[in-house]
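Morning!

As promised:
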Amino acid sequence: MDTLFARLVVLESSAALILGLVLLWRRGVPAYVSAFTWQSIVLAATAATVGWFGHHGELYVVAALLVLVKGIAIPRLLGRMERRFATQRELAPYVNTATSLVVAGLLVLFGHAVMRPVVAASELPTRAAMPLAMGLVLVSLFVVVSRKKALTQVVGFLMLENGIALLALLGAYGVPLLVELGVFLDALMGFLVMQIFVYRIQETFETIDVDQLDRLRH
Amino acid sequence: MIFALLLLPGLASALLALVVRPYRAAVGGINAALSLVPVGAAVALWREVLAGRVPVAGPDDVLRADALSTLLAFCVSVVGALAAWLGPGLGDGWNGGQARRFRIFANLFTVTMLFAVTTDNVGFMWVAIEATTITSALLIPLHASKASVEASWKYILIGSVGIALAFAGTVLAYFDFSTLVGRDTAALSWVVLRDVAPALNPRVLELGFVFILIGYGTKAGVAPMHTWLPDAHSEAPAALSAMLSGVLLAVALYAIVRWQTVVRAAVGHGFAENVIGLLGVLSLAIGALSLVAQRNYKRLLAYSSIEHTGLICVGLGLGPLGVFASMLHLLNHSVAKSMMFLLAGRVLLRYRTAEIDGVTGLLRVMPWTGGLFAAGMLAVIGLPPFGMFVSEFALVRAGFAGDRSVTIALVLALLAVGFVGVLAHLNRMLYGPPPSAVSVGERGGWALVPLGACLAALVVLGLAVPPAVHDLLTRIVGIVTP
């Protein structure tokens, strides 16, 4: 029973991490949006898995919310933004694809190293997957700092949030439901505000390439 | 009851501004009047705390105000009131749409900060601090310009990522904790957390604290995560800059102090203090050295905020005396920096430029504003008889008492660099012939009264720390370093 549980969460976490890597080797925003959508659904599945094996009924609520907010609502809004900026692709990120993938590999290893004391201290059957979640957090962070398009940065940020949610699920079977709801509200509002700004950057700069945002230096 | 008076007036003002369209000056007037209620509530909390009580409210005592919360609640409500009285929407150059937006989001911003410092649940504290980013980011480009859009993008992106890392840290600290305490909402209560801390796994908590420090440190303007700060503080409208610099930094530092207490209880004195102290010195260095080369006076003030955040962090690493100095410095900084940004807004309105080179003869052009600006600048660089001299002096003493003379020597050297840099800029702004396009002369006006009161408060804090403040700070030291 526990071994099935452990294998399932490792499988799901690996899928989430690989979907995060899509941001590094694909160039088109539609690919990013579908990677994020699938990642959110995998995350919801993980919540349901943990809820089932860990006997935490409230995690089904979390799973449902994940599907609604991050699996449907946010991808739709992202898709609308994508159609508007369809011609603007991530052509020349600050770090090229090959180097990015090497860095991502190192970050995943680093995540493993960082999480060793946590894994050692934990007795949960999910502990083996925790380094993967930390890997996703670090890789998403790298996406945010190494990509130039505002839209890519937003998707990177959303994946960072997914990584942290995954970490919470694996390490403690999620945070208390009330706090979780607050986090959801913040995530949604934060995304909406970022969306406003992406449109505003487009209006004022006529591009969403943040490389152009260089008025404020020194 | 006290908590309702603290939190609800801001919500009511925001709601009022939301439903009344188009904007009317009466909304701003009601907002300004209501903004005084939380200040009264904070004073009431202060009295309760000095009487030895800890007011709590809500299910699971989710709202709780000890001495540390009270100090922050007081700073936030006072600066919130300053912004409500002097912000857009009370007969000035802003149009109705801008004033309405300001009134909605500035009030929500204040409420989220007040909630962040009065909730006992570290999960809700995180939710509230994340919400401060969202509510304030929309106000930075109140004047839509390329620079302000750029500044707000940096702010929301770096701020959100940082704060997400703080959540990762909270989650890491919660791992071990949830197995000890269980999984109900009270499991993230700070009081419970502190009490069980000695039983937590020290290595896990250390890792969590690194994330928390990076995360909340990003919002506090701790180097090297400070890069958004000079842009956001300099491009935001003056009233918002005052809130960002005066209290948002303090609220983020508050979150760090709460966690520092837990980590100390778990791993003993040393780890948290060393990391905070190290980043503090780094922030101080970056802030002070950047002051010298500034050409823009709002950015000058912003870098000075980084410098002072650094000082507060250094103090937090220096034991009980250091914590006392830090908290006094935090109070001083709230008063001084919100006053300075509001004054800078007045200067900007007259001279139409934020370049230091464009501002000459300030004392002739605007005798009142210029005088307050000069005095405030002297206060900010730590001259007597202003409050910051006392808190910096206390910090230096704490350093020598704790045998950290090398750190303190470095701190003093950096302060001297900042001192000289600011003084040179200030000198250029105050004297000389005014630019021909700028009209000379200034009528007093009621807006100068609250700003003058800030300066008076700084002088009072600089001559002798009032007993009520001293008692409150002593109680805070008791909480942070038991």
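Residues 177-205 of chain A form the longest helix (29 residues).

Hope this helps with the figure draft.
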